[in-house]
Q: What sequence folds into this?
DNA sequence: CAGCGCGTCATACTTTCGCATGATTTCTTC
DNA sequence: GAAGAAATCATGCGAAAGTATGACGCGCTG
């Protein structure tokens, strides 16, 4: 968090410097407004993107989780997940496994590589004491992880 | 990441053009730079947020609610089995698949070779329209084949 | 009896899984 | 600001799973 702020401030300083420099040297009066505009635009577009990713994305994620289930058993999943030390991402992938998707398809669905899916799967299987995906799905349902 | 940069640069170019155009045509009035700045800032902050949410966090989740009624258990299995043209042996193996057993374990359980299990599995998967055992289990439950 | 469905098995081949290991990055937390 | 958790990705390897094809025996049935 501090890192972003730092980089951000640094960029701002660079911009200011650059702006003054350019203005005082070769891009004088008539273009100054344009320059200012561009710089401000860049600055605020960056801020907007930053805000969008940092602040709005998590909210969207929460919506994803809470909307679909119609909320009969959400806290239960969470409790079971927590108890087993399974991360949210792992559970997410486990759910797709239970839907019969291959690792490749899961990767495409979640926009991550197949390798990543495999990693999550392995960890989840390990935590579930399962050695195959079918077994993992079964255990997941038994333990209240999956509906 | 590259995509965003590209779009970002594009937006920048568009802005420069637009800005110069507007400046030389109808907004040359004596508005202060600050007003331009604020307007552009607002505009691009919004754009940035839009970009951030649109491009950097494209996530969706499709969740369905399947309702497997588990009341009449045996006759229904038979009916579904018959309807799908699945033999008893195939269903038997499918049940063990759903229990998370490997082909080898199934073979040992039923005293047949692993190859035989594979054959039955392939045929059953084909009749279920499944390409993976996890998918087959899911379809089996949806169709009332498996409890 | 000839044909058919079913169960059994094999061989060969391709694809997918699962495991181990290590690296990088981001975020949180103390 | 150091440390840990979490997510991401890669590579390599062996083990499963899945596909295709052919074959054999058994029981039923027209």
A:
């Amino acid at each position: 968090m501090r890192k972003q702020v730092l980089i951000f401030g640094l960029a701002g300083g660079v911009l200011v410097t650059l702006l003054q420099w350019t203005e005082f040297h070769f891009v004088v009066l008539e273009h100054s407004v344009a320059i200012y505009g561009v710089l401000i635009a860049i600055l605020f577009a960056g801020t907007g993107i930053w805000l969008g990713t940092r602040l709005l994305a998590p909210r969207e994620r929460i919506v994803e989780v809470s909307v679909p289930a119609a909320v009969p058993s959400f806290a239960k999943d969470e409790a079971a997940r927590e108890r087993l030390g399974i991360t949210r991402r792992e559970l997410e992938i486990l759910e797709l496994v239970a839907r019969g998707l291959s690792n490749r398809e899961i990767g495409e669905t979640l926009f991550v590589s197949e390798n990543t899916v495999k990693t999550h799967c392995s960890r989840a299987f390990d935590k579930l004491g399962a050695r195959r995906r079918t077994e993992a799905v079964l255990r997941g349902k038994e333990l209240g992880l999956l509906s």
